[in-house]
Automatic annotation (TrEMBL):
InterPro entries: CPQ. Residues 247-288 are annotated as: Disordered. Residues 263-273 have a biased composition (Basic residues). The keyword RNA-binding does not apply. It is found in: Secreted. GO terms for molecular function: metal ion binding; metallodipeptidase activity. Residues 1-25 form the signal peptide. This is Peptidase M28. It comes from the Bacteria. The keyword Lyase does not apply.
Amino acid sequence: MSSFLSRYPLLAGVASLLLTTPTLAQNAPQTDSLNIRRIYDEALLRGQSYENLRHLTGQIGGRLAGSPQAQQAVDWTKVTMEKLGLDRVYLQEVMVPHWVRGAQEKGQIRAAKGKGVDVPVCALGGSVGTGGKLRAQVVEVQSLAELAALPEEKVKGKFVFFNRPMNPTYIETGQAYGEAGDQRRAGASAAARRGAVGALVRSLSLAHDDFPHTGTMRYEDNVAQVPAAALSTNGADRLSQLLKADKKPDLRAGNGLSDSARRKIVQRNRRNKGLQISRRDYHRRRPP
């Protein structure tokens, strides 16, 4: 065998490689597992993740897009990454929508001959303002499909009240939240297409209380933008009961959805190192 390999040195090299490869392959997983273990140990013994999170949420606070706190978070994160010794850390300019909530929202249900009943309401994130007080009758629906099936004359000039609750029989509450969320996300534009003056949405909560839950919504392009607000679950029940009693209540939306509750384009200005807000109201499109 030795004399055979000496005649063919190339075959000898291949044979040697084949004999040593299993040993190398066996050592590689051990090395990988040791390195992974070192990463785990470093994170568990000397990790700063929770401390960083504590600073971000406690010292800087809420960070709505375009807000001063959002910019503070960006600047702080850059410095933190540089201290960690990362190879390259840099900032890129981006255009973001900036929405500011106005004064506290107010809602009141008033029947034809009854006394006004205050109901807790909260503007949905991104909603346009009412431009002052807005008063209109209410039409209740359980879904976007039910709204689409209504004759336009039953909707025009009214608030559309989306009152489909979260399904309480789901063990996975996230599924119930997701299924009921379409009326909040798309309800305002769906109502506007039928001539409504605004949209009211039952809060996405399984609790029965007087605390309205806000959340995001989106306007469709080329559709009129109408104000949208969430009613507390108790407030939604009261309004639904009045509608079922055929008292034809109307709802007044106060200054809470005021002119100041609008979005503006905000950009980062490197020269001034500050936030520059354009004077052009941002209504139709989100920046790319």
